[in-house]
Design goal:
Blueprint (H helix, E strand, L loop, with lengths): L2 H15 L2 E10 L10 E22 L11 E7 L2 E7 L9 E4 L5 E6 L17 E24 L5 H4 L1 E13 L1 H22 L1
Antiparallel strand pairs: 1-8, 2-7, 2-8, 3-4, 3-7, 4-5, 6-7
Helix pairs in contact: 1-3
Length: 200
């Protein structure tokens, strides 16, 4: 392997390893809406240029939203008409935190308020509510994008028991750092120089 080939490979590896920062595509806070009833849904739209992104948001549970138990309350996330995340989380009502559908490899961390043990893995009924932070990869359309957050219950008990809401919603996409572009351009320059040198 020539020195130039090693240099090109080194530049490619460096470019791939370079860090990137997140650019905000959409941000909203629906906490002002307060508790919504289950079954119910909240839909929001925004414009984007398309491509891959990360959606992060917080579900608020009021009083006794159930995870998997006798009265399971189920959360659904739908992006551009396609369901991409479904789960049930103990936010005061007891039960086992369970993710039912998660093809994009999202994460969910639940905090049960008033839990006497580990608040992130509690199965206790506390009647104190809680939050669940969810982060999941999504594919954006070029143009208008629609997010729908929804809850349903197999034993509806009203807003006093199963109130839920959505707090901060953030859609971000990775943007390469300037150093990444510099490395990519240097690599392309070396490749072009090698091609020209071989023709001479």
């Amino acid at each position: 392997m020539t020195i130039m080939n090693k240099a090109v490979i080194g530049l490619a590896i460096a470019a791939a390893a370079a860090t990137s920062q997140a650019a905000t595509i959409y941000s909203a806070d629906f906490s002002g809406l307060g508790a919504m009833e289950s079954p119910g849904s909240l839909t929001t739209t925004f414009s984007a240029g398309g491509g891959s992104a990360t959606l992060a948001f917080e579900i608020a549970g009021y009083a006794s939203l159930d995870a998997v138990n006798c009265c399971t309350d189920t959360f659904h996330l739908v992006v551009n008409g396609t369901e991409i995340f479904t789960g049930s989380f103990n936010m005061g009502g007891g039960g086992t935190n369970t993710i039912f559908f998660n093809p994009n490899g999202g994460t969910a961390v639940t905090t049960t308020f008033g839990a006497s043990g580990d608040p992130h893995n509690s199965t206790e009924v506390t009647w104190a509510g809680g939050i669940t932070d969810i982060s999941v990869g999504i594919d954006l359309l070029a143009g208008t994008n629609t997010l729908t957050f929804a809850y349903e219950s197999n034993f509806p008990q009203g807003i006093w028991d199963e109130g839920w809401g959505v707090n901060g919603v953030n859609v971000t996409a990775a943007v390469p750092e300037p150093e990444t572009y510099a490395l990519m351009l240097a690599g392309l320059g070396v490749i072009g120089w090698l091609g020209r040198r071989r023709r001479v």
